[in-house]
Amino acid sequence: MDALKNKRGFVCDMDGVIYHGSRLLEGSKGFVDWLKTQGKRFLFLTNSSARSPRELHQRLLHMGIEVGEDHFITSAMATAHFIAAQYPGGRVYAIGDSGLYQALYEAGLSIDESSPDYVVVGETRSYNYEKIEVAIQLVLGGAKLIGTNPDLTGPTDKGIAPACRALIAPIEMSTGRQAYFIGKPNPLIMRHALQLLGCQREETIIIGDRMDTDIVAGIESGIDTALVLSGITRESDLQRYAYKPHYILRDVSEIPK
Fold first, then answer.
1. I want to staple 9 with a disulfide (CB 3.0 to 4.6 A). Which of 57, 199, 219, 251 is the partner?
2. Residue that wins the pLDDT comparison between 157 and 97
């Protein structure tokens, strides 16, 4: 644990690590307070593209944790960063919520529903047949297909809901085109997080509750990993994977001890 505590940079997943749905998990506030008092560099990284950093800031504030908007990175931000690097000033047809649109605008990209360079899909509750139909025609017309993350499902207060990969599947199947996914476990989003942190991978750790996104993202990026059992993964699940985390914790309250 000393090696973990001595890390300079911390990249933390949110749902299943800091909170679950609308409920703050035990020890989360103490962990964030420890990060602040120890002068650690930290980011909350979420594969969801739905909310903006401001909305995530307000969500944590409502739960009693105050951190600045600059401590958040989303798959929408990483997606916008990627597209802007590939095609500065590019045009995008987006299916998503406010977090995705804000990230695209801030990256200097424009929304175009007639002849975009990219079709980008993220999580949204306003998903409908008409948007799928438009996306299919645009992709067949030459637009490149991007998914903000490869998650099939995501947790909600009501249970499991379809996430990006499930929403983009009809477009892939109808066009025969495979989407490129930016979020975890793609090392792209991890490199973007390291740039924002200003840390080297050797001095950073990623903390998450999912073996198939958080832990494999760290392994593929050369970053040490800590799995917390406060979210979706149980210790009995570990035998199903060909890789393992560097640390296994009950929850983040174990770190400041």
1. 199
2. 97
